[in-house]
Amino acid sequence: MSAKPAPIYADNAATSFPKPREVIDTVSSVLGSMSLSPGRSAHQYSLECSRLIFDTREALADFFNCPDSSRIAFTCNVTEALNVGIFGLLGRVLHPGDHVITTALEHNSVMRPLRYLEKTSGISISILPVSGDGEVMVSELPRLMRDNTRLIVANHVSNVTGAVADIEAIGRNKGNAVFMVDAAQSAGVFPIDVVSMNIDMLAFTGHKSLLGPTGSGGFYLRQGLSLRPLKMGGTGSNSETEIQPDFMPDCHEAGTPNTLGIAGLGAGVGFVNRTGLAAIREHEQRLCRLFLESVGQIKEILVFGPAADRERAAVISLRVKGKSESEVAQSLDRDFHIMVRAGLHCAPGAHRTMGTFADGTVRFSFGFFNTEADVTACLTALEIISKN
Ligand SMILES: Cc1ncc(COP(=O)(O)O)c(C=O)c1O
């Protein structure tokens, strides 16, 4: 009987795996060495915890070129950050009758809050279209802008097509609108500079390319912009008053935080910094090109998204003619020990524009720890599946 091949994880757009050794070691040593409740008590464990959280905040501020680390608040993922951002603007920046622009590639963590506001708060929404190869047509932005456009929300990298949106161009043309970026798929692979990109709010998740644990994430909010908190409660600050503090980051950090997740996220950012964003990107691009160039030779396979020579992430959607998406993903897992994701990837709008709604696609997403041998094994498996 032949030995079972080593599993190949190609689902990094869902969450990265494996995590760097230092992330695992940090989480484990923090769990075993301190009490995990920062900023509440004045004893040494609590102070050490506060220092850990402060260090991660500083590391993230530095990473995204935020002028002030107190403008970064932690959440449990990018979904929570985007919800704080979108709902938090209501009554402050967004009022009934106002207009929002977003893109056809958004994840449900953007579209569901926006559609809810459209239904309940009289907000109207315009959608930036996507070109045939899955890229957001930023050139259409001026045409969609109105006098009452108060918010522009854009995904930096599509979790379906791997396309990279030109967020610099959106930032340049945003007028007076608040510009919110969903960096779920880009943070940790593509450079992000909130100042030069003119980003008012950057939402990120810790467990994808920032290589931290699940349950970690956050957002940067530009000085001068305030959001109504989604949750209120103990912050360890201003405890004499029953009114939620109005200063960052405390106003958005009620409740004991996910100290373990934040510590692991700090270690993940440390790994990315030491490895170098350019080196990470180059490695992932090489894998992506290798995959795209060869998969294009298999005539039963239809690939969606930008071509190999375009700037794109290593997130690749495809279909195998004559096979359902779930059938392909199941065969990859069962017969070849290759883990991918099939379906709509929580972004139905992206599939509508690509014509792959409602079955979706099979998505391969390669990360920093994948190798060329992994890619070759994926290609061999696809070749066999598509011919059977
Ligand atoms: C573009 C995009 N936005 C938002 C999310 C939601 O991420 P999380 O589950 O970490 O909140 C994802 C996750 O797949 C994503 O790809």
Structural write-up:
The chain is α/β, with parallel strands linked by helices. It contains eleven helices and 13 strands. The strands form three sheets. The protein has a seven-stranded mixed sheet, sandwiched between helices. α4 links the parallel β3 and β4. The protein is globular and about 70 Å long. The model has no long low-confidence stretch (mean pLDDT 96). The site of pyridoxal-5'-phosphate has 12 residues, from α3.
- Biggest sheet character: 7 strands, mixed
Structural class: alpha/beta
Oligomer: single chain
Helix proportion: 25-40%
Number of strands: 13
Report the CATH superfamily of the largest domain.
Type I PLP-dependent aspartate aminotransferase-like (Major domain)
Any idea how many domains? 2
- The fraction of residues in strands falls at 5-15%
CATH fold naming of the largest domain:
Aspartate Aminotransferase, domain 2
Count of DSSP-assigned helices: 11
The CATH class of the largest domain turns out to be: Alpha Beta
User: Which regions have little confidence, pLDDT < 50, spanning 5+ residues?
Assistant: none
Task: List the ligand species.
Answer: pyridoxal-5'-phosphate
